[in-house]
Amino acid sequence: MSKITPSVKINEYIELKLEKGKTKVYIDSEEFIQCRILLTEIPINNIESLDQYMSIDELFDGVDIDMIEPFSELSSEEEFWGHSSNLQIWVENDYDTNLIHSNIAFPMLKKLTEAGDKRAKRVFKDEIAKRISHGYPPTIKFLFIEGYFDFLSEEELKTVLRDVEIIEFNHIGLEKFPSELLEMENLKELYLDRNEIKILPDEISTLKSLEVLSLFQNRLETLPETIGELSNLKKFNLHGNRLLLIPKSIKNLSNLRELNLSVNCLSEGIEPLFKIPNLESLDLGNNRIKSILPHSKIKTKSLKYLNLNSNELRDFPAFIGNYLNLEGLALSNNKIKKSSYDFRKLKNLKYLSICNNIFDEIPNSIGKLSNLKNLTVDPKQYEKMSKDLKQKFKEEKIQIKIIK
Q1: How does pLDDT run across 347-401, given as a tens digit for each residue?
Q2: Most buried one in 134, 145, 254, 330, CB count within 10 A?
Q3: What distance lies between CA 161 and its chain's CA centroid?
Q4: What is the pLDDT of residues 114-170, one digit of tens each?
Q5: What pLDDT score was predicted for residue 35?
Q6: Do 185 and 237 have their domain in common?
Q7: Model's pTM, two decimal places?
């Protein structure tokens, strides 16, 4: 006698079938999706127990769903009944997309709408708006990538995005800055890392609440002058772009604390960076900087970390002595010829890297740095270091790193 294949009719449009040990969802009699794994079973009689989480997406925050192994103790039939129970609760709760993972809920809701399900059609746009307005970054990213933003009118989208504070659109192949984001008056953190963006629009200045802007590894060659109007910006990451010039207006970013411009194509005109009044960390490593014009009016006296590694500097930047709060200074892999710079002014310096330059003698003034903890040199520099200096570093427990 053949075994009966389990199937459950959830409503007029949705049916689940167990076929060859796999749970499959049919919508309007057409196979729509195969349920790969049962993440969790929604408690039928105590759905309020999930109230501490806004959605199932957040319940599994940071978990790669594709990497989860099925419950080994569950049979295929038990998983089938678990999926059936979850979809039954989803339907009974008016297709609430908080109750099942968004990468299943929204495609199903869209398909049901297309199949003529009036209830699905009624809630479809509302569910999109609801989940965007909740502000959970991975769900917003999913809805953007899959085109669900397009189901809302311009005014509706503006409304639901108004109170969102964090956007993470990393590594999704963006070639242009998303214009939809320019209406987000309360946006505080914007991450657009590892995309193909070439131009920032002048209108980026409308993001007045922005505190963090990350454009790590894009294709930017310039920045708009309006970038200086982001008055609340605290952290700006531009690592790995193709920047040739820096706008003078960048000195107006009075709240900026961290600026990463490493791995770009900067060679000149970087002086405005040293006029950002409250900057604490400046990373200019791996550029093409040959010199930095001296200037008497140093405004960035709060600077604690300065990275100039892997540039084309031929002299120690003399103005560095004005940064009395400097704790970390990286000058390795340049073409600095002389070692006569007097480091004694940098009384707070803790970390100093000077390896792989043309000079091979360690300035004696480094031995006067009472707060120094780490010194990075190359083999030649270490070889020519005096015995007295080596002994002093040993007694003061200063860690010396030797890098070829």
Answers
A1: 999 999 999 999 988 888 999 999 999 999 999 999 999 899 999 999 999 999 9
A2: 330
A3: 19
A4: 999 999 999 999 999 999 999 999 999 999 999 999 999 999 999 999 999 999 999
A5: 79
A6: yes
A7: 0.91
Q: Which two three-digit tokens encode residue 306? A: 């300065």
Q: Please tell me whether residues 62 and 109 are part of one structural domain.
A: yes
Over residues 257-265, mean pLDDT: 98
Q: Does residue 73 lie in a domain region?
A: yes
Tokens of 178: 């998303």
pLDDT band for position 295 (cuts 50, 70, 90): low
Does 368 fall in a domain? yes
Residue 54 lies in a domain: yes
Structural domain range at position 51: 7-114
Distance between CA atoms of 36 and 25, rounded to whole angstroms?
11
**249 and 340, same domain (yes or no):** no
Same domain, 289 and 383: no
277 and 188 in a common domain: yes
Domain tally for the chain? 3
